[in-house]
Design goal:
272 residues; alpha/beta; Rossmann fold; 8-stranded mixed β-sheet; 10 helices; 8 strands; PDH_N; oxidoreductase; coiled coil; NAD+ binding; TYRAAT1/2
Length: 272
């Protein structure tokens, strides 16, 4: 159940961001606009950028953990989540904290969070189904998936979800397994087609149809994301492998139909 805009539980939060790459920066700007207090830590030094944004940047993990954040938002890559979590000095947490991930796969991260985090830490798995490109003009109408995995502090959880609801997101509460099953069919296939088009090196032509222009846009948008993100969609989503097999089988079926039509055409052209 999401919090309505009039909910008394909605309050400003102290949010710590682990992994201040492009996606973390993208989310941070809206959170700052809403009045939340942000801290950040990352492998790369983003201290100057954070200073301009009004965000406290910590190079040391101990200082970051000791900053008493209400929420620690995990914006790492899918492939590095376990390593990053295990590197956090969780024993330095001064009070129960809500950990919220924003990764593009959910079931694997959910299990890692439950295994590594202290029992007293709350866990919220989320996936904003948009990014710096699709959300550059606002988040209104864009999907935000979440599962309350282990929540005892409802006020903090609801206030965090309100960040996205107040921007007009479509709030979709579902299990991590259901998300991954749907995402394998939609997000993973989209990225796979885009990567295939990139390998084919398709470029605009003077006679492009609207459909071909859409393919160009798909190629361009998917290759903006790192290959680590794409491979994570495959490696850490158990449903993706079957979707890849389905794509290969579908291609072979279409190819076979074309070859059969070609054979019929050749026969019809032969002299009687």
């Amino acid at each position: 159940m999401a919090v309505s805009s009039s909910s008394p539980l909605s309050r400003t939060l102290r949010i710590g961001i682990v992994g201040f790459g492009p996606f973390g920066q993208f989310l941070a700007k809206t959170m700052m606009k809403q009045g939340h207090t942000l801290t950040a830590t990352s492998r790369s030094d983003h201290s100057q950028l954070c200073a301009r944004l009004g965000i406290s940047f910590f190079r040391g993990m101990n200082e970051f953990i000791e900053a008493e954040n209400d929420v620690i938002m995990l914006c790492t890559s899918i492939l590095s989540l376990t390593e990053v979590l295990e590197s956090l000095p969780l024993h330095c947490l001064k009070r129960p904290t809500l950990f919220a991930d924003v990764l593009s796969v959910k079931e694997g991260p959910r299990e890692v969070l439950l295994q590594v985090l202290p029992e007293e830490s709350d866990v919220l798995c989320t996936h904003p189904m948009f990014g710096p490109e699709s959300g550059r003009d606002g988040w209104n109408g864009l999907a935000f998936m979440y599962e309350r995995v282990r929540i005892r502090d409802e006020a903090t959880c609801s206030s965090f979800l309100h960040i996205f609801e107040s921007e007009g997101c479509r709030m979709l509460e579902m299990s991590c397994e259901e998300h991954d099953k749907l995402a394998a069919r939609s997000q993973f296939l989209t990225h796979t087609i885009g990567r295939i088009l990139s390998e084919m090196e398709i470029e605009p032509t003077p006679i492009d149809t609207k459909g071909f222009q859409t393919l160009i846009q798909l190629k361009d948008s998917t290759i903006r994301d790192s290959f680590d993100l794409y491979s994570g969609l495959f490696v850490h989503n158990k449903f993706a492998k079957q979707e890849l097999n389905n794509l290969v089988l579908a291609f072979e079926k279409v190819k076979q139909k074309l070859e059969e039509m070609n054979e019929k055409s050749d026969l019809s052209m032969q002299p009687l």
